[in-house]
Amino acid sequence: MDTIADPLAAIRNLVGADEPEAAVVPASAEDCATFDDDAIVCTCANVNAGEIRNLVRSGTCNSLDDIQVKTRAGGGCGACLPFVAGIVQVEIGLRPQD
Ligand code: FES
């Protein structure tokens, strides 16, 4: 399997941003809720919503960048990035507060 040296390269190329994660507008919580856990969010990397949710819930991933490094989601065409970012945002919001 090929490795992706820069998982944010696709979105950087699309938006021409120096900080691509900041350029991604997360999908709404309502839109993200339409993904069942087994629904594929990123077809390029074959990553489903449950995998993203579990990585955030476990504390393994704390940002879109973390998810991209861990799963490669969003590292292809970049079309899924709003949904990946939205799911990350929703799950972080659901974490118990200290
Ligand atoms: S669908 Fe996720 S990078 Fe293409």
TrEMBL record:
Top-level taxon: Bacteria
Requisite cofactors: [4Fe-4S] cluster
Protein name stated in the entry: (2Fe-2S)-binding protein
Metal-binding found in the keyword field: yes
Family matches, as PANTHER family: NITRITE REDUCTASE (NADH) LARGE SUBUNIT
Species of origin: Populibacterium corticicola
BFD-like [2Fe-2S]-binding domain residues: 40-88
Coiled coil ranges: none
This protein's UniProt keywords: Heme, Iron, Iron-sulfur, Metal-binding, Oxidoreductase
InterPro entries per record: BFD-like_2Fe2S-bd_dom (IPR007419), BFD-like_2Fe2S-bd_dom_sf (IPR041854), NasD-like (IPR052034)
